[in-house]
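STRUCTURE:
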């Protein structure tokens, strides 16, 4: 007699490692990971970011090395974010259109060395280039205006595509920008450049370390609640996704990650498209703080949280732990 309910014992399949492997429902591999990287000026520069322990800004030569590392680890895509020098920032973020800006130099260098061995995803939004740290243009009242901003984003996206970007990722949350960018890409002959829309991006308290990393944190006054989403809302996220897909997005993103897994699942179930989640800077920092405090094991925390995104229905995860996780997964 093995118990009172021998027919309903779920623990039977969990009793050995081989059996747990056999019954596992979700797989996480290095091919599920997108590695965000911060680019800075200079040559041979590595600048650690205090609020993101273990993450650095790299000059373009270092970024190319990271791209090669990603290829060796089986990470299919890297995501680039520039730390623009203060003297190149302006109220209208015009540096975003400079074909020789940091972002474009990094894209060209990676593509020259690595070609199609890796995908390069580039963020479209004005915050790395504006003197006020907002993602768009401000009117006299300090409100971020939509249509004028969209026109700037179109130029920014084209500039990145011309430098060789493979996936354009608008993170600005303006209305109508996916359609405008898609049309401009088509007219510009960039028919195979994909758009991964930050479709459901919430006004979150988890972005702090990122703003330090790109140098916009100290500049930002106020918040981004007039364009990023209210954390209380689900139906609005589904409408954002619906519109972005209709406007021409190839895939959509939910951001932040762990606190919004329900949104990722709803989007996947309702639209049946590739959904990506961004495990953002504050989430990375929380894990690292827990590890530093002796409150958890890094490897186990990283793999468990990343697996949760796959279980929720995500096709992949943007994570600052990408290289570390890939090393663990590749054994
Ligand atoms: C800005 C942008 C942000 C992130 C990605 N793109 C920050 C923001 O909206 O203020 C956050 C990423 C992270 O926290 O890791 N357009």
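SEQUENCE:
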């Amino acid at each position: 007699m093995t118990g009172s309910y021998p027919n309903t014992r779920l623990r039977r399949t969990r009793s050995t490692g081989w059996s747990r492997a056999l019954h596992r429902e979700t797989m996480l591999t290095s091919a599920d990971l997108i590695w965000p990287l911060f680019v800075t000026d200079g040559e041979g520069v590595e600048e650690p970011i205090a609020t993101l322990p273990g993450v650095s800004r790299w000059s373009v030569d270092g970024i190319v090395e990271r791209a090669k590392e990603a290829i060796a680890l089986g990470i299919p895509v890297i995501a680039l974010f520039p730390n623009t020098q203060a003297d190149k920032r302006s109220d209208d973020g015009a540096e975003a259109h400079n074909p020789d800006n940091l972002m474009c130099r990094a894209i060209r260098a990676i593509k020259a060395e690595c070609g199609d061995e890796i995908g390069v995803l580039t963020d479209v939004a004005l915050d790395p280039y504006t003197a006020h740290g907002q993602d768009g243009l401000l009117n006299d009242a300090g409100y971020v205006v939509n249509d004028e901003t969209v026109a700037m984003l179109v130029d920014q996206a084209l500039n990145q595509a011309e430098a060789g970007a493979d996936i354009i990722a608008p993170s600005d949350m303006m209305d109508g920008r996916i359609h405008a960018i898609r049309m401009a890409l088509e007219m510009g002959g960039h028919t195979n450049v994909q758009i991964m829309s930050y479709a459901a991006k919430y006004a979150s308290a988890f972005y702090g370390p990122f703003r330090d990393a790109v140098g916009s944190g100290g500049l930002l006054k106020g918040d981004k609640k007039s364009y990023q989403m209210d954390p209380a809302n689900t139906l609005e996220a589904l409408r954002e996704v619906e519109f972005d897909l209709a406007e021409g997005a190839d895939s959509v993103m939910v951001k932040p990650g762990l606190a919004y897994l329900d949104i990722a699942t709803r989007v996947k179930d309702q639209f049946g498209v590739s959904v990506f989640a961004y495990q953002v800077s504050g989430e990375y920092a929380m894990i690292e703080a827990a590890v530093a405090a002796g409150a958890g094991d890094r490897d186990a925390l990283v793999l468990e949280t990343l697996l949760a995104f796959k279980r929720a229905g995500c096709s992949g995860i943007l994570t600052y732990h990408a290289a570390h996780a890939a090393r663990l997964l590749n054994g």
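REMARK: The radius of gyration is 20 Å.
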